[in-house]
Amino acid sequence: MSLTNPFGDAAITDPQAMRALAHPVRLAVLTFLQRNGPMTATQLSAHVGATPSVTSWHLRHLATFGLVMDADPGEVPSDGRQRYWKAAARGFSLELGEGQESQTAMRMLASQMEENGRKQVERWWAATEPELDHTWRRLAGMANTGVRLTAGELEKLQRDMDELLAHYAQRSDDDTPPDARRVRVLRHYLPEAQ
To answer: How far apart are CA 117 and CA 92, in angstroms?
Structure first.
């Protein structure tokens, strides 16, 4: 698995890895580790809706695809009796390969990601938005813009957007202003049929 985009995300090209990640618990495990750092299966289980043993099984399955790995000893407060896991990369991107197997796997994972994104937006509206001050509430929002692009222009637009966001996604804690908040940016590029 290569880290090819400006975010340092793992590029997932293997249809089997996509299918594995399409499982709701595995996607939740990976997402939680990416956001919160190393944890044990027991610690994770409370956040992903599975028992510690089931969570451990899913972690081992994700590890076969290189999506998670053992945390380095210096990263965790461990006495050596607990196994801490971490995400292999800060995020992931999907790359569609040739053939029906890749397309089917991509659709399975995209469907699960859409469901997670929908729930995330619903939770935001219900719990977070009402608590924001006017400035942050005003800056939050959505857009739905249609544009006419060639395939090359769409590829360039995606690359330009990634590079713009990467500046903020990759900056260190020392370079992040103290009043910064985590902001979730959800993007869709949906070419229409001719």
So the answer is: 15
